[in-house]
Amino acid sequence: ETGVTQTPRHLVMGMTNKKSLKCEQHLGHNAMYWYKQSAKKPLELMFVYSLEERVENNSVPSRFSPECPNSSHLFLHLHTLQPEDSALYLCASSLYLRDRAGGYTFGSGTRLTVV
Amino acid sequence: KNQVEQSPQSLIILEGKNCTLQCNYTVSPFSNLRWYKQDTGRGPVSLTIMTFSENTKSNGRYTATLDADTKQSSLHITASQLSDSASYICVVRGNNNDMRFGAGTRLTVKP
Fold first, then answer.
1. Among chain A residues, CA nearest to B101
2. What beta strand segments (E) does chain A contain?
3. What is the rounded CA–CA span in Å between residue B7 and residue A38?
4. Which tens digits make up the pLDDT trace of A22-79?
5. Which residue of A90, B50, B81, B87 pairs with B104 in a disulfide if CB–CB is 3.0 to 4.6 A?
6. pLDDT lower than 70: segments of chain B
């Protein structure tokens, strides 16, 4: 394990459902990120949090709603998703915001399938 | 067009053979370049990081090279093992801290 834990590992949901993805790290990192990984495409940055404050939202549709209650936990709330939202959702953390030297620690991801 | 292009998109080799993965980028100005390994069903894990002044860096059987003039990097895997089967992702960071991800190379090592 990398120290970044994501749950659930797999999720199948209907387009009218509401679900949440959870990410947890106890590495003492101050920044956390949500990425979307679709097949054969580069990782897409969705949201960036630094010390629980959202500092970046990369034009993500409002059907994705992030929440960062503290520096160790990050959630991604999902509602009325589309089939094209099916992907691997990765959470990452870093000691500092956009830490150059230390890099990012990634979780194992949540494989989301929207039916 | 993506600022980080990786080739080949996929590669199949026999166990014990060597292989080289390529990464070309246009990110400028350049800060550093990382190679990540992503096993199936897992998140990416950093293999190496290279800065502007570094030409080559090794991590066990993995050797990364960087030519900052031509904006090219390679990842060479020696004496491949079945456990090397994974996606390898090149990530380039600019001086503005913007990170650009390649789409990855899917490597399959067969016995």
1. A42
2. 4-7, 10-13, 18-25, 31-37, 44-50, 53-57, 64-70, 73-79, 87-94, 105-106, 110-114
3. 18
4. 999 989 999 999 999 999 899 999 999 988 888 888 889 999 999 999 989 999 999 9
5. B87
6. 1
Q: What letters, b where the CB count within 10 A reaches 16 and e where it falls short, cover A26-36?
A: eeebbbbbbbb
What does R_g of chain A's alpha carbons equal in angstroms? 13
Contacts (Cβ under 8 Å, ≥6 apart) of A7: A21, A22, A24, A110
- Other beta carbons within 10 Å of B66: 23
**What six digits make up the tokens of A98?**
């956009």
Q: How far apart are CA A110 and CA A89, in angstroms?
A: 5
> Which residues of chain B lie closer than 8 angstroms to A109, CB-CB?
41-43
Over residues B22-46, the pLDDT tens digits come to 999 998 888 899 999 999 989 999 9
Indicate yes or no: CB of A92 within 8 angstroms of CB of B43: yes
Per-residue tokens: A105: 């620690």
What residues have CB less than 8 Å from B70, skipping those under 6 apart?
none
